[in-house]
């Protein structure tokens, strides 16, 4: 020990005391950062940034960059030419009419606009999108919508009835998810806003705890709205893989947690494959680490509470599970409310306070709003309220039974089709389908040619069908199974050598290592649909 001390003294003999102190502090901080870092995650982050920088640099090279951009421009043009509004006989209003149109002229235009779409969603040819088309329910919601057309819950003193309906929608939803008398929530414009509000509240909680760079840990299958929330609100999303059953990898989730983690995420179910994450196990992790835990039930919120009475195995996913601190659920999906309606729910009222916005010193008065929007449509809230009280518990049990019966029939029969397999073991309404024998995107294109509108997925290549009440109509599932069996047999016997249409687009998208190119393509798509 004496010789070690002498060696250190000799080493630092040429340095002043203040320099030695600075070196010591610097070394201490360096080793502290090393010890608190997550080597696997940091290595992945470094790789991602390096890859991004590499492709950015390549695209800036004079000759190579131009060739790449030419190909991107070509692909963007082909994409836009495939859109509905690329038809030469489709004309657009270019300016506001000088004199207002007569009502019969307006309805003539509306009739023409309605005919633009080629997909027959009323007959069950579309995955998800329209969750019910009951004529009596439609009439009811239309009448209610008309009565509250001009209402706005921002002005609670003018429209107290709408505000009462909103409060009742929240309380009814809390009842479905085992909320307590002190649990609370907000009505939002959709699942994305519900998720945004939840993430904002956890970010603000992190700030209050002194966490300057809050992080969210979520499986890669969590909804893209979590990516959007992180981009909007300055959070860092740590995506963890899923296991062979397409559930969140619990080991990876534990490893991803740091002192900056403010939220864990699970899906019930997740959108791509319809798989329900292990909510109870993730909740235990959240409790043990003192972290918030959000369960995204936007897709399954009005199926899961009714499983048991519908004759299916119950799933624990909500506030009955200790550790679940917030839930998002879409009333405008299987709740059959008009579009633009969802809820975000919290176990404790303090968490909801963290999503509120208020400004007390604005010249226009004291301003406060519970969510992103200021003015909101009271008609949508009233329509949601009407749908829920009209359906009732027994109505939702019946719809759940019909929808899951249709989905499970598809799941069972797909397993018998040569060349196809089901991803994971979905229990609800979404059935994801893949193939090891042919390009699944080509199957999707051929199904589209037969009038079906399914959802293309990636990583791994697959498609899914999300069953709704439209698929419970007589003959719909039978026709779907007949068509997909016929198309699969065709591809096994005569596989297409060159993918076309959406098959070519999705096949190409998965193989492009520079993901910024995909961003260029999505920008072209969004620009294209608004092209006039």
Architecture overview:
This protein has helices at 2-11, 17-36, 39-58, 62-81, 103-114, 135-147, 160-176, 191-208, 225-233, 250-256, 279-289, 349-353, 378-414, 440-449, 476-493, 501-511, 515-529, and strands spanning 184-188, 215-219, 236-240, 261-267, 292-297, 326-329, 342-346, 357-359, 367-369, 421-422, 430-434, 455-457, 462-466. The protein has 532 residues and is of the alpha/beta class. Among the domains are: 1-36; 142-390, Aspartate Aminotransferase, domain 2. α13 packs across α15 (476-493) and α14 (440-449) packs antiparallel against α16 (501-511).
CATH architecture of the domain at 142-390, please?
3-Layer(aba) Sandwich
Could you give the count of β-strands? 13
Cα-based radius of gyration, to the nearest Å: 27 Å
The ordered H/E elements are HHHHHHHEHEHEHEHEEEHEEHEEHEEHHH
- Return the structural class: alpha/beta
CATH classification, class level of the domain at 142-390: Alpha Beta
What percent strand? 5-15%
- The N- to C-terminal Cα distance equals 82 Å
Helix percentage:
40-55%
Identify the notable features of this structure and list them briefly:
single chain; 532 residues; alpha/beta; Aspartate Aminotransferase, domain 2; 4-stranded antiparallel sheet; 17 helices; 13 strands
Summarize the structure.
The protein is α/β, with parallel strands linked by helices and 532 residues long. 48% of the residues lie in helices and 11% in strands. Among the domains are: 1-36; 142-390, 3-Layer(aba) Sandwich (Aspartate Aminotransferase, domain 2).
């Amino acid at each position: 020990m004496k010789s070690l001390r002498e060696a250190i003294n000799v080493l630092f003999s040429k340095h002043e005391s203040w320099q030695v102190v600075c070196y010591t502090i610097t070394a201490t901080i360096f080793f502290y950062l090393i010890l608190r870092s997550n080597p696997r995650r940091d290595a992945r982050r470094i790789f991602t940034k390096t890859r991004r920088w590499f492709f950015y640099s390549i695209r800036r090279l004079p000759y190579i960059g131009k060739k790449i951009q030419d190909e991107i421009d070509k692909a963007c043009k082909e994409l836009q030419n495939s859109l509905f509004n690329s038809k030469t006989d489709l004309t657009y209003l270019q300016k506001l009419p000088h004199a207002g149109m007569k009502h019969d002229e307006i309805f003539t235009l509306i009739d023409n606009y309605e005919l633009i779409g080629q997909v027959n969603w009323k007959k069950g040819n579309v995955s998800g999108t329209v969750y019910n088309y009951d004529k009596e329910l439609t009439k009811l919601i239309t009448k209610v919508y008309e009565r509250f057309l001009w209402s706005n819950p921002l002005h609670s003193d003018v429209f107290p009835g709408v505000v009462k309906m909103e409060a009742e929608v929240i309380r009814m939803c809390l009842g479905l998810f085992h909320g307590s008398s002190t649990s609370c929530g907000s009505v939002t414009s959709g699942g994305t806003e519900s998720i945004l509000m939840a993430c904002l509240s956890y970010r603000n909680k992190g700030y209050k705890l002194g966490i300057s760079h809050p992080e969210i840990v979520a499986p890669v299958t969590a909804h893209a709205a979590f990516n959007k929330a992180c981009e909007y609100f300055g959070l860092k999303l740590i995506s963890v893989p899923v296991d062979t059953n397409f559930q969140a990898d619990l080991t990876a989730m534990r490893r991803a947690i740091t002192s900056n983690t403010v939220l864990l995420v699970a899906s019930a179910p997740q959108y791509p494959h319809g798989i329900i994450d292990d909510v109870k196990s993730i909740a235990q992790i959240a409790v043990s680490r003192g972290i918030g835990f959000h369960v995204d039930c936007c897709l399954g919120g009005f199926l899961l509470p009714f499983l048991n009475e519908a004759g299916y195995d119950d799933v624990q996913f909500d506030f009955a599970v200790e550790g679940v601190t917030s839930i998002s659920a879409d009333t405008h999906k299987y709740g059959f409310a008009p579009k633009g309606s969802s809820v975000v729910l919290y176990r404790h009222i303090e968490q909801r306070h963290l999503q509120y916005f208020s400004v007390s010193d604005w010249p226009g008065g004291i301003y406060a709003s519970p969510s992103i929007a200021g003015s909101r449509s009271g008609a949508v809230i009233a329509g949601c309220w009407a749908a829920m009280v009209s359906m009732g518990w027994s109505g939702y049990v019946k719809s759940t039974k019909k929808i899951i019966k249709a989905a499970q029939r598809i799941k069972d029969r797909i397993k018998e089709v040569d060349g196809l397999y089901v991803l994971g073991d979905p229990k609800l309404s979404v059935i994801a389908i893949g193939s090891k024998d042919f390009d699944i995107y080509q199957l999707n294109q051929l199904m589209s040619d037969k009038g079906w509108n399914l959802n293309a997925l990636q990583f791994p290549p697959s498609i899914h069908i999300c069953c709704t009440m439209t698929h419970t109509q007589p003959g719909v599932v039978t026709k779907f199974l007949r068509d997909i069996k016929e198309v699969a047999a065709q591809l096994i016997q005569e596989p297409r050598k060159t993918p076309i249409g959406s098959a070519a687009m999705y096949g190409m998208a998965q193989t492009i290592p520079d993901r910024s190119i995909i961003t260029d393509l999505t920008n072209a798509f969004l620009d294209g649909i608004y092209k006039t």
